[in-house]
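Minutes, project check-in

Agenda point 3 was the complex the collaborators sent over. CS summarized: two entities, 506 residues total, and the question is how they sit relative to each other. Sequences were read into the notes so everyone works from the same version.
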Amino acid sequence: MVKVVLIGNGNVGCYLYNTFKETKGIKVIEWYSRNQTKFKDSNVKISNSIEELPDADLYIIAVNDSSIIEIVNRLKINTGLVVHTSGAVNMNILDSFKNYGIFYPLQSISKKHKNTNKSFPYLLEANNKKNQYLLEKIVKKIKSNFYCLNSIQRANIHLAAVFVNNFTNHLFAIGQRLCNENNLPFEILMPLIIETTEKIKTLSPKEAQTGPAKREDEITLDKHLDILKDPILKKIYLTLTDSIIKLNEKEKL
Amino acid sequence: MVKVVLIGNGNVGCYLYNTFKETKGIKVIEWYSRNQTKFKDSNVKISNSIEELPDADLYIIAVNDSSIIEIVNRLKINTGLVVHTSGAVNMNILDSFKNYGIFYPLQSISKKHKNTNKSFPYLLEANNKKNQYLLEKIVKKIKSNFYCLNSIQRANIHLAAVFVNNFTNHLFAIGQRLCNENNLPFEILMPLIIETTEKIKTLSPKEAQTGPAKREDEITLDKHLDILKDPILKKIYLTLTDSIIKLNEKEKL
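CS then shared the predicted structure for the full assembly.
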């Protein structure tokens, strides 16, 4: 049985709590949060005293990036493995502990939307092989997969995730705005959005690229810039079009 | 039986040919293309003489936007309905004909990738109700759905499609590049990409937005800008981040 202390009850903390609750061989023995009120329905021992946590195999710090250092400074851990769940924070923030590492779920986790597909990977890192092995064992128990990355690789993947998830979602928001402004339902775009993702299951994004920027179709590009009145949308259009054209030219070389 | 003459053998022309071939009640009686060599395996009468097309109920001009006017000027049609398949070109380009309209498939169609989901909509427009009805009948026969839009609405949806499809795909290409540069497979990002689309089936894109720009997390934003060396990628990052922050601020008002 792997005994876990969970620190933080945000999106990732709650997701991990619920995942571990359903997993044989892992037990959350205590859950720390500054905010006790959210925990009334929980079946786990709740704590708001970070200095007095019980002995455990694994301490998972699942708090905002900017709060990790505060937790690190207050935690008193002897032998347990201490990990954080951030994509962007270097592992060396934990190097005051004897055993430390990273347990970063590469997924957009939010309480508002229940994740149906649990097959996303965890990006793991640890200060030695024994600790790495414990993290791998936990991922296997929850039936996910993993990649072993160093902090630089992880920071780059976290950045890539911003492009393919956060920025992509913002483009969807722009699509919705253009629908609203023309009295059309956003559903009209959904089959195209779904196909955009379907396509890159069999083609690389470079092969799948279509559209006026790819064709360098200046008549359509001008038409679109003429329709767009908002200077921010115009700038997004120009910046992404420019990048597609430059990538095209590079490929021709 | 609806008799169709198809003009053009690009992505859309070929897609429509294959779709109609499988559809009861629609027959492609002739297929025009400047380029004859691509047609060797076809079971339809092929023509390269645009001035001598047979009588038909429907003439579908499925050529590049910039070639539509050339086809229009050479076509001699008395009573058949003439449509084009472009998202960006106004219907009035066809107003020299008696019966004209638009038959625009709102999907990213390419020969390289076989479309599995045929439930995408066609955006229809016609110069009178009878012609509109014929286009609706055809969409129903091929078991798709449709929206009746004017040319301004269609141009806006075409523009929205560039944001949600072409630009989104380019963000995926950037994600792939960041993976390659860090010796990681692009597959690492696929579950996140799939979840990005899954999320907006139940949440609006505004509600689904997460990430450092949404949180206005300047430490992470600075880290990412520090990692990005390519000035084009830096500009994309800054432009989209700025747009997310501005949208956030607008919502707080």
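Noted in discussion: Chain B touches chain A through 93 residues (CB under 8 Å).
Follow-up: revisit at the next meeting once the mutant set is ready.
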